[in-house]
Every structure is written in C-alpha cells, then in structure tokens.
Amino acid sequence: MSTQVGATVWAGEPREELRRRLQALGFDEVRFAAIEEVDGQGLRDWLAAGMQAEMAWMDRTAEKRIAPGLVLSEARSIIMLGVNYWREQLGESRSQSPGDPVAGELAPTIANPRWARYALHEDYHDTICPGLVAAGKILESFCGAQETDYRYYVDTGPVQERGWAARAGLGFLGKNGMLISRHYGNWLFLAGILTRISIAPDAPVRRKALPPQGAEPAGLLCGKCTRCSDACPTQAIPRPGVVDARRCISYQTIENKGIIPRELRVGIGDHVYGCDVCLEVCPWNRFAQAAHAVLLVAKTGIAELGLGELLELTPVRFAEVFRGTAIKRVKLIGLLRNACVVAGNVAASEGRGCRYLPPLVKLAAHESPVVRAHAVWAVWRVTGELTLLSAARAMETDVAVLAEYAAAD
Ligand code: SF4
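A: This is the predicted complex of the input protein with iron/sulfur cluster.
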C-alpha cells in the first residue's frame, strides 16, 4: 500500500485534469465522491423483507456495500463513471420512446419479443473493463497511486454504485430505484473506482427546496410523477426507490434460474430478457442522447429474432447468436423458458391454429423440467386445454411440471 497517496488532496485544476483524462477514455460522466459512512438501514430493511429474492450474494456482501473500507482499507474517494448506452432501436423514434406512457402495455400483435436495451450490446462488463484498466493506469501515472491503492467494479462488486453516483452528483435516485441523469436520462452504465487517493468531491444534485428531514431520499427530482410505479406490469415498486426483486421482470427473466411464479407470468408480457418499462416511461429520458459507443459495442441480430426462432433455438444457434453478450448467462434453458412465457402471453387464446404451438408442444418434452413446465403453461394459455400434451403428460415424473398440468385441470 502506498502510504503517501492520500496525503495530497486533488482539487482545482489538477482534479479537472484528472477528470478530462478519464473522460478521454470514453466515459461520458466522471464524478467524485468522498468515502463517508453510509446509512445502511434502507439496504438492511430491503434484505430483511426478502426483496432480494434468491440473490444470496446481496446478503453476503451487505456490510461491504455499507462500509467501502471493508472492500479497500483507507479508501478516501470513489470515482464514479457513467457510460451512456441509449440509441434508437428498430421501429422507434426518439420522440416516441422516452416517457412514452404506453411503453408498459403489451402490444396486441407481436412483432419481436422485447429485450432490455443494455442486452443489445456485447457484454458491458467486458467492454467497459478495458476503460477501467486504463483509468487505473492514469491513477498510477498521474496521481502516483500504486496498483493496490484502487479497486474498480462495474456492476459486479460489493459497491452501491447508484448511491455513490447520486452522492457524486452524477444524477439522482429516481422513484424507480435507478440513477437518473439530467444529461442522459435513465441510460447510464455505472462503474466505480474505490481509491485511497483523496479527491475533492463533486456536489450532489440538489433542488431549490430540499425535502423535509426524514423524507424519502429517492425521487428528489421526480415531483409528483409516479409513471414508473404505475407502469410496472408486475407492481414491483411498492414505494418510491424500492424495487421488490421477487416481482421484478428483470429478476424473474434473468436472475431466477427456476420456475417463474405463475401469478407473474401474464405481467411479463412480451419481455423475453429483462425489462425497461420503469425506465422507458420516465420523463427524464427527454434528455437522452445517442451513445458515443466508445466503451460499447452494439450487437446486431438479437432484436431481429422472431419468437418462433427463439422457441426453436438449438445449443449451437444459441452459442452463435449470444456469444459475447450478457444474455448468454441465462443459458439456453433460461431463454427457452422465457420464450415460452412470451408465447403464452402474445398468443393467448389463439387456439390450435397458433403458429407457436408446434415448437411449444416439442418443448413440453424438453430435457429440462424448467422448460417443460413453462411450455405446458404456454400450451394451456394458447389452447385453453392440454389434450395436445397427453403423451408428454403420461411420461412426466417431475413434480414441478406435474403441478403445471394439475393447475390447468
Ligand atoms: Fe421519477 Fe417519474 Fe422517472 Fe419514476 S418515471 S423515476 S417517478 S420521474
């Protein structure tokens, strides 16, 4: 550890030069916050209520998230970095999408299933990481830090990125629990560098009339708006700034590796991987601007996939299409499961003429019980009965899949 590195406080022009050098790496936002004691009660309450669902790592890392000194001893500052990832997608215009009040509604006829915007890029963990490596080298060459004087994370470490980004003034915490930038809306990837270097902090976002003491900190610049919680298809935002992962479509379609609760499936609509509804409806997205794509690589071919193609994905095709993306983490089984749910929603009540029925019937005999269970549900949604699956049902032994059959009786 360098004992000297914290002796100098980086402020004024040297701090601005550091900011410029980091921005030149491709980071759209570079802001600084001082490491201070964080009130961890909100996180503890959220965990105690079980809103982390099966994300046990949230429990394991809670104390580190509250006390960055447990992650890097003698940490004095955190450098918060933002990478804008907004871009127009197929079939939408800039004026239609941000703040569009109908964005959360299911389209009556499906074009292609919906993907979270971030997923339509090569895995951001991989594309942002070289920028963080280069940022570390700047801390070494420009600030005299040693390699052990900093640690960086992009979304995967025990760092409360959104909270620190708000403290650094990169934006404010919206009622949707996201970091909202006045320059980029809801569309920033966040990364943080904990460091023993002392850097004069930037000011957090303020509004003229500060909230009364004890007021909910999330939603500082939301005013009376409640679009995000109103639009959430599964009612996953019980109060401002609090997202219940158990009800969140992003959690259910990405983090949950097993059975998606039946009561949430209809709300999932046509979201095949993740969900941006609470982001898309936010009026602050009127400030969204096209990404520079320095630390991003857009991935073509995913948004263009039809539901029929997804239902017939093979391991080879899955590897080919999703190589290098974050989507590969749900694996083929997770994506087939999600595609079944989408089919059950977009083709509900279409009956035996539905074009998705042949692949769904095939998936009801898939080797994975998770896929089979959701295929059974989808066939029931489409046809209203399960006679097409009589043979598969006779062979079934898995308890979860049998429960799907029983629920449809
Ligand atoms: Fe705040 Fe409205 Fe945006 Fe929700 S949609 S985060 S309430 S401004």
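Residues 174-176, 180, 219, 222, 225-228, 281-284 surround iron/sulfur cluster (CB under 6 Å). DSSP finds 17 helices and ten strands in the chain.
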